[in-house]
């Protein structure tokens, strides 16, 4: 089985709602077996046309299917609803190399 990595970029506009989202999202990530690899730390563009994200999280899941179960789960959808007007999100998931 190959792990999968969910990358989430956020541009936060309303911090109090953003904090509520963060707590709900963290609980949903843990419930669906996700593990943070990076969460909001320093970042630098080393090459190309990347734009430096305001906030970036990388979460590892056991598989692409587990990552998608998390993303479409009622728990994460509740977090998204709390985040509706607080941040613009870009999210992608990529399958890792087989273990």
Index terms:
99 residues; alpha+beta; Alpha-Beta Plaits; four-stranded antiparallel sheet; 4 strands; 34% helix; 30% strand; flat
CATH topology name, in short, is Alpha-Beta Plaits
Report strand %.
25-35%
Runs in which pLDDT lies below 50 for 5 or more consecutive residues are none
| CATH arch. level architecture | 2-Layer Sandwich
Shape: flat
Count of helix runs: 3
State the secondary-structure class.
alpha+beta
Overall pLDDT: 91
**How would you spell out the order of helices and strands?**
EHEEHHE
Number of domains: 1
> What is the β-strand count?
4
SSE order and pairing:
Blueprint: E1 4-12, H1 15-31, E2 35-39, E3 55-61, H2 64-71, H3 74-82, E4 87-95
Antiparallel strand pairs: 1-3, 1-4, 2-3
Helix pairs in contact: 1-3
